[in-house]
């Protein structure tokens, strides 16, 4: 006998679990099917983000920052700490506790909202009347058959592999392996200076590894505003000590018994490098295999993502897709907002996801964050703009924190003064970027930010000062 639901969500990551909860809140009978198993082989909700992505990476970033601070920053405060040691096992145990706590929390929310929590791999089987038939298997055996009025595909993404190089998560690591190293490698190689490469490289560098990052693109962080990216390159190479090589052409990569040999070309010269561990972080690919897309004719786009319109509608009636498996940035908050919007659209509401105002954060130290257009984009689009910048160097709160590095840049329309972008590198800019998101959503002008009272002393004063600078009224510049 099939179980009947109004809405079945495939995938329990930040897109899927949020969509299921919202659907249930709107009065639908909802189920969420998720296949993820933790290293103990137990189901664990939360998808990539909670289990092997956003949350564990931030836990390790914090642990490694603390270790670094004890060694390098505490003395300035007059605090002597001798014999500081890193217990990697304890660091990983803390990370696992955080994951387990949050995963259990999602299970609790499912119970509270009466979302059926089904473990297994879901695949489209066909259509029964006006219902979609979904089969759920676990370890190859069929465990459930579901019939659903609406299906939301939220199957997420997986690491892109380097052609010809197998990931074993012992020597050659993807994000799962990079988050689970049980000892600090002496020589860590990273292929790809994107978000994962920079975050994971920072963790293991701060814990003592020599880190070399090999990036194919000639431009560092090409998606970021280049003034901020240049500042980031300087501090990440000089202060954090990451050895970032740009414009690299990766050649043969061979995993031996204890190390990995990487041959690459840089500025026309052939280089041979040897690493104890190698992280491959060259982007991610959508999870559509085994979903039965071909069985029901679910259309994929030319890059293999489930093809959707602006409202996350697929080519099939009442089949929706959200998050990493569809176009757009691979970010947890983007996935969640699409999930909420789809559930509300199924309920007949008219939600809107503003793709132009999605915040980006890279959790290096200092952090990098932005929302809206970069200066390069505005130039390319021929938009006339004005800009204001201000640094954290003289900000009292940043100095007190001992993190007075970085800057804020605001970009506003030259005629209307409407804020078009806010770009930052500095302490806790992951939090500060929200001011830009709110301002842009409310279509604020840079003058609005300049006239709003910001607490003193606070990091947000740098945004205030940048907004004043946009109008050539900087008080401390
Ligand atoms: P996922 O989180 O990938 O969840 C999909 C789920 O569906 C998985 O559990 C998968 O097992 C399951 N599944 C797949 N196929 C099936 C099937 N057929 N049947 C049943 N279940 C299935 N984003 C941020 O915004 N901030 C960050 O700080 C951040 N840090 C990251 C750090 C790392 C190391 C990585 C790898 C990613 C990070 N991301 C971050 C990206 C973020 O994890 C993703 O954007 C987000 O998880 C996408 O959510 P999703 O719900 O679309 O998919
Ligand atoms: P990415 O797209 O951020 O970066 C991949 C990098 O690898 C790019 O700079 C690319 O030029 C480079 N590259 C590609 N092929 C290469 C090759 N053959 N040789 C050398 N370099 C090559 O992808 P990444 O870091 O794997 O992360 C995947 C996604 O996960 C991100 O795009 C992001 O959406 C998400 N993420 C978000 C985080 C956050 O929000 N803080 C943290 C980590 C991941």
TrEMBL record:
This is Dihydrolipoyl dehydrogenase. It catalyses: N(6)-[(R)-dihydrolipoyl]-L-lysyl-[protein] + NAD(+) = N(6)-[(R)-lipoyl]-L-lysyl-[protein] + NADH + H(+). GO terms for molecular function: dihydrolipoyl dehydrogenase (NADH) activity; flavin adenine dinucleotide binding. Its EC number is 1.8.1.4. The keyword Flavoprotein applies. Disulfide bonds join 49-54. The gene is lpdA. PROSITE patterns: PYRIDINE_REDOX_1. Belongs to the class-I pyridine nucleotide-disulfide oxidoreductase family. It comes from Chromobacterium paludis.
């Amino acid at each position: 006998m099939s179980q009947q639901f109004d809405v079945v969500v495939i995938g329990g990551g930040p897109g899927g679990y949020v969509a299921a909860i919202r659907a249930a809140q709107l009065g639908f009978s909802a189920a969420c099917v998720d296949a993820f198993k933790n290293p103990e082989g137990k189901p664990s909700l939360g998808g990539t983000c909670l289990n092997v992505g956003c949350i564990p990476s931030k836990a390790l970033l914090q642990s490694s920052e603390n270790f670094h601070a004890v060694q390098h920053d505490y003395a300035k405060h007059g605090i002597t700490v001798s014999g500081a040691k890193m217990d990697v096992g304890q660091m990983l145990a803390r990370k696992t506790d955080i994951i387990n706590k949050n995963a259990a929390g999602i299970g609790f929310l499912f119970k509270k909202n009466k979302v059926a929590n089904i473990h297994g791999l879901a695949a489209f089987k066909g259509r029964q009347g006006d219902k979609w038939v979904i089969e759920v298997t676990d370890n190859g055996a069929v465990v459930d058959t579901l019939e659903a009025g609406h299906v939301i595909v939220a199957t997420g993404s997986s690491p892109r592999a380097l052609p010809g190089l197998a990931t074993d998560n012992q020597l050659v690591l993807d994000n799962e392996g990079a988050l689970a190293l049980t000892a600090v490698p002496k020589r860590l190689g990273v292929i790809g200076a994107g978000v994962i490469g920079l975050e994971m490289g920072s963790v293991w560098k701060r814990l003592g590894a020599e880190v070399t990052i090999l990036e194919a693109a000639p431009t560092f962080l090409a998606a970021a505003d280049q003034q901020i990216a240049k500042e980031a390159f300087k501090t990440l190479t000089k202060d954090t000590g990451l050895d970032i090589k740009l414009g690299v052409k990766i050649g043969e990569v061979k995993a031996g018994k204890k190390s990995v040999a990487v041959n690459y070309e840089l500025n026309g010269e052939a280089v041979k490098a040897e690493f104890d561990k190698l992280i491959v972080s060259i982007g991610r690919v959508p999870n559509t295999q085994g979903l039965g897309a071909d069985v029901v004719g679910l259309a994929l786009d030319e890059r293999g993502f489930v093809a959707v319109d602006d409202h996350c509608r697929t080519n099939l009636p009442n089949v929706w897709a959200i998050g990493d498996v569809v176009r757009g940035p691979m970010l947890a908050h983007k996935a969640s907002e699409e999930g909420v919007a789809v559930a509300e659209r199924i309920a007949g509401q008219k939600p809107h996801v503003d793709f132009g105002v999605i915040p980006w954060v890279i959790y290096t130290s200092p952090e990098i964050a932005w929302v809206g257009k970069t200066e390069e984009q505005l130039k390319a689009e021929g938009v006339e703009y004005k800009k204001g910048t201000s640094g954290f160097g003289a900000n009292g709160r940043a100095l007190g924190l001992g993190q007075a590095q970085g800057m804020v840049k605001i970009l506003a329309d030259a005629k209307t003064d409407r804020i078009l972008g806010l770009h930052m590198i500095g302490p806790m800019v992951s939090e500060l970027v929200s001011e830009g998101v709110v301002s842009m959503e409310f279509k604020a002008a840079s003058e609005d930010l300049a006239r709003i009272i910001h607490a003193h002393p606070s990091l947000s004063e740098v945004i205030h000062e940048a907004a004043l600078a946009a109008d050539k009224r900087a008080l401390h510049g």
